[in-house]
């Protein structure tokens, strides 16, 4: 899928988590619901950091271009080192390491740890990166024509404001993890979720996605998981814009209302 569909599905998935959490008696305060959805929308672009033409690789200027080169090299090396007998040779790392459940879990855990031990600046940094990505993903066309600096400013100010909102008692920094010293531990969850949703989105396109690496499937360690071929579509095709995008809006909207307790 393309950026906007990835981001929308990420946000919708977090709203769905919010609805489930409300049903399980852990309702999210609205700032957790909103900020989590934005983080997940941003995180749903992150796995494509292994591709130089992807939104995320261009979003932070030379910094993300460098990160993209490094990630691509690490992914390619990991692919070669763990390749099964039937995995084909590859010339680059796109859609390998960063498109696995293990990667999603590692990045999420890393961000949770950073938020818990790194204090306010770590939270701000995580928010900034994901707000910029959320703007790039959700406001695709608008972000494309405006300058990078403008998007960074928007990301920085919204990160600052949202951190202040979350910081107020009862507003969400202590959601789910209530013990002392666990503030913002939940921040890794929308990051894991966004990455997983990205992989699922890629897996329903023609090429599939090696989510389950390194579990061997049919003698491949990088088996491209996905539904039967007739259920797959090309990234950027009409299915994405005419079917999936409206569906994400519907599911996301209904879930958000459920998460806020409108139906109960
Ligand atoms: Zn991808």
Describe this structure in words.
The structure is a single chain. The protein is mostly helical and 264 residues long. 62% of the residues lie in helices and 0% in strands. α1 (3-23) runs parallel beside α9 (238-259). It is globular and about 55 Å long. Bound molecules: zinc ion. Zinc ion (ZN) binds next to α8.
Can you give keywords for this protein?
264 residues; mainly alpha; 9 helices; 0% strand; globular; binds zinc ion
Number of helices: 9
- Helix and strand pattern: HHHHHHHHH
- The best one-word shape is globular
Oligomer: single chain
Which consecutive residue ranges, at least 5 long each, have pLDDT under 50? none
Q: Radius of gyration in whole Å, from Cα?
A: 18 Å
Quick check: average pLDDT? 91
Strand content: under 5%
Ligand species: zinc ion
Topology of helices and strands:
Elements: H1 3-23, H2 30-43, H3 55-59, H4 61-82, H5 101-138, H6 140-145, H7 148-167, H8 188-203, H9 238-259
Q: Could you provide a short overview of the structure?
A:
By secondary structure, the chain is mainly α. Helix content is 62%, strand content 0%. The longest helix is centred in the middle third of the chain and has 38 residues, at 101-138.
